[in-house]
Amino acid sequence: MAHLAALRAENFRCFDRLACEFGPGTTAFIGDNAQGKTSVLEAVCVLLRLQSPRTTTLTELCRFGQDHGFGLSGDLAPAAASLRPPTGPESGPDADATVPEPPCTLKFVWHQGQRRLQAAGQDALGPSRYLARSAVLVWMGNDDLSLIRGPGEGRRRYLDFLGTQAFPSYRPALLAYDKALRSRNRLLKDDRPDARQIAAYTAPLIEHGTTLTQLRHHLVTELKPWAAAAHCEISENPAESLEISYQGSATTDFAAALAASHPEETRRRLTLVGPHRDDVPLVLNNRPAAAFASEGQQRTLALALKLAQARLLHSLHGRPPILLLDDIFGELDPRRRNALLRALPPGSQQLITTTHLEWASSGFQPEYLYRVHQGTLTPAH
Amino acid sequence: MPKADYPPEIQRLILHLKRLQGVGPRSAERMAVALLTGKSGVAMELARALEAAAQGVVHCQICGFFQSTAATCPLCESPERDQTIVCVVEQPTDVIPLERTGAYHGLYHVLGGRLSPLDNIHPENLRISQLERRLASGTVREIILAVGSDVEGEATAHYLGDMLAHRPTGAAPVTVSRLAQGLPAGGGLDHADDLTLHRALSGRRLV
C-alpha cells in the first residue's frame, strides 16, 4: 500500500469526531500545544500498527469521560507505481511488483476492553492477518532523545517496533516470549515458588527467547549501515562515526545464563537474563553516546536512528514507509532541519505536526494543511 | 410518559443469552425475539433440550469426557479400546477431532484446561492428580500429550513430561510422547510460518 488516503476517528483522545483526507505526499497539522495534533498521528499509528507510542493501555485513548470505547477507520490507497529501494539491490521482494493493489479500508474498534479488527470488508480478523493488510510506518518525535539518554527499554521498544514491521516471524516470537516471561515472573513471586512449574515455563522462555535474540541480532546487523550513513548525512561530518551493536544480557547461551542466574532470581523473584534485559549500546566516536555526546550530537543521533528505520523498511518492502513526524522541525536548528528534510525517503507519505510554519522554507509545500484547535480539525488552504 | 421496553420475562431471557460466549447484546435480543415469535413450540423444545442436557450430562470420573447419566462412559468402558495407552487433552471437546481421525484407539484423559499462572490456573486446578492415580494401577504403559502448541500448552506439556519422568521409584515405567508439529497436510513449504517450519525441522524423521 502506498499511502493512507483518509482517517476517521470517533471518541478518540480529545476528538469527539474526526475525519480528514491525506495526499500521497505531505500533510501538515498546525496548532498550539495541547490542541490534539499528536493525537491525530497517534490515531494513525494505532490504526495501522495496533499500538501507540504514547501508552500501552488502550483505555487511555478513549475520550475523557467516554471510556467505554473508541473507533478508528482509514483507507489505504493502492500504490500508483512501485518505488525502487534507495540503493539498487534487485532482490527486494516487491521491487518488481507492478500489479496494482486494491484499496483497503481498515477498521479498529475498541469496545469495553475488546478489540475488533476489520480489513477490506473481512470482519473479526486476527491481528496478524490485519497487520498483513496494513502499511508500515516510522514515528519521529521529540521523545526520541530518550533513545539515547533513557534506559534500555526505549531502545528495545525501538527494535521491536521495527522488527514487527520488518520480519513476519518477529511479532509471534515477541508475544510468545513476553507471555512466557510474565508467567514465569508470576510463578517466581509466589509465596512458595513451585520449581517444576517454573521449569515448565523456562522451556518456552528459552525457545522463543532464542528466536527473538537471533531476530534482533539480524535486525541490528541490517540497521547498522543505514544508521551510520544517515548519521553522516545529518551531522554533515564524516569524521563522526556511529557504532551500534546488539548486547545480550546472557554472555553464554541463554539456557546456561538462566541456570547461572538461578540463585539471584530466586532471591529477587524475577527473571534476570533474556531479551527483556538486552540493550543496544550507541557508541559515537568510540565513546558511549549517552554520557559523552553533546545535546546537539544526541539529537542528530536520534534522527539518524529513526531515518535508519525508514530506510531499512524501504529496502525490505520496496517502498518507503509512512512517516509520522511529531513536532520535530520547530525544535531543530535550521542546518539539521534542512539536512533532515533532504534525508527523508523520497516518495514517502509524511504527516507532520507543528505549532507554526515559520521554519518552513519556500520549498516546503504541504498538499493538505489542517488547523487543529481544541479537538476540531479545519482545512486551511 | 414512561418509555416502552420489553416485558421483564423477555429482558431476563436476553440477559441470560448475553452471558453466553460470543453473544453480544444485539444478537441476544434477536435470538430472544426469534425464539418467542417463531413457530410455536420452538422455545419449549429448546427449554426441554436444555434441561435434559443440563441434568443428563456429567463428566466421567475417570477420563473427564462427557458422559450421559443414563449410560457408562463410552470411552473408558469400551472393551475394544487399548487400555494401556492414554491420550492427555486440555478440553473434553478436544477428544472429538482426535476420534474423527480414526487413527487412535486408546483411552483419554481430560485435564480441564492448561497451566496459566497469569489466570491463576495451577496444577491443583487441573485433573493432574487424577492422572497420577490412574497410572498407579500399572496398566497404562504409554502417555500421549496432545495439548496445544502455544506458550501455555508448551508449559503444560513440559510440566507433565517432567512429572512423569520423576515418578516414585517402583512405579511401572511409562513412555511419554508429544504430538508432532510440522507441515500442514497437502501444503508446500511456503505455506508454513517460521515457527512451524522450525519445529518441523527439529522434529524431522528418517525415511
Distance between the termini of chain B: 81 Å
Strand line-up across the major sheet of chain B: 4-3-5-6
How many strand elements of chain B? 6
User: How much of the polypeptide of chain B forms β-strand, as a percent range?
Assistant: 5-15%
Q: Strands of the biggest beta sheet of chain A: in what spatial order?
A: 7-11-12-3-13-14
Work out the helix count of chain A.
11
What is the makeup of the main sheet of chain A? Answer: 6 strands, mixed
Radius of gyration of chain B: 23 Å
Count the beta strands of chain A: 14
Return the domain count of chain B.
Answer: 2
- Termini gap of chain A: 27 Å
Estimate nothing, just give the exact number of structural domains of chain A: 2
Description:
The complex is a heterodimer of chains A (381) and B (207). Chain A is α/β, with parallel strands linked by helices and 381 residues long. Chain A folds into 2 domains: 195 residues, Rossmann fold (3-Layer(aba) Sandwich); 170 residues, Up-down Bundle (Glutathione S-transferase Yfyf (Class Pi), Chain A, domain 2). In chain A, 39% of the residues lie in helices and 20% in strands. Chain A has a 6-stranded mixed β-sheet with strand order 7-11-12-3-13-14, sandwiched between helices. Chain A has a 5-stranded antiparallel β-sheet with strand order 2-1-4-5-6, covered by helices on one side. The longest helix of chain A has 41 residues. The two termini of chain A are 27 Å apart. Chain B has 2 domains: 51 residues, Orthogonal Bundle (Helicase, Ruva Protein, domain 3), CATH 1.10.8; 134 residues, Dna Topoisomerase Vi A Subunit, Chain: A, domain 2. Chain B has 7 helices and 6 strands; from the N terminus they run H-H-H-E-E-E-H-E-H-E-H-E-H. In chain B, helix 6 links the parallel strand 5 and strand 6. Chain B is an alpha/beta fold and 207 residues long.
